Amino acid sequence: MAEARAQGLRPWIAVKERLARSAVEVMAGAPAAVLQGGAALHFVYGSPRLSADVDFVGAGVARAIETQGPEIARAASEAVGRPATWSMTCHGRLLRGKVAIELGPARRLVLPVEAYQVPAHRIRLAAPFGPVEEPEEITADKAVASADRLARRGALKTRDLFDLWFILARLGSAGPDAALVAAKAADYGLPRRDADLAAAVRAIPEEELRSALQGVLPASELGALRLCEVVEAAATVLGSCQHVL
Description:
Helix 5 packs antiparallel against helix 6 (158-169). Strand 6 and strand 7 form a beta hairpin. The protein is of the alpha+beta class. 51% of the residues lie in helices and 17% in strands.
């Protein structure tokens, strides 16, 4: 926690990051579970943004999470030296697991570990983290999720803008092809939204983006970040594939 504060990170998010790493390493031995999202970008691809949850996909991922749940809790307990419990619920193809740790009389941390039973299309193996989506597929995931979130809630997930910028600017990805985005939308059973995602991104104030990144991005990274470039990169990516969303 002291190290996290020194970097300008939220201490409890930093503790969750340690729990998340232990969960990912436990699941590395389950080939049916493919790591995706912010945790994949952070642990495998070197993104400086901390993720407060862990997401997996795969045709047999629910069974894998169900089987490894108690081991995830045991590893989390060892990681921070506190008792941990495991619980989960299932909603159709979505399984929501939770690792809960009591850190003191007034502090309880919960790490969400979610699994969606849909196929992963582009996978690589990355020791010690196991199967992980390629950056292009992570971008496609975020494009599909952004279109759905905008339609249902009228807003975008602000931290996703940084993730999209990171994939383009730091990983050198050209972004997803339309066929992959369309395939991901079909996997999740989402209809065409026909929303102007690029305009929605450009409407987000830089102050809102900075606030969303404070505490989950080291202060040195946030201070050097050109937020206008983050917004424009995300708008370009989402705008390039919105014709299939």
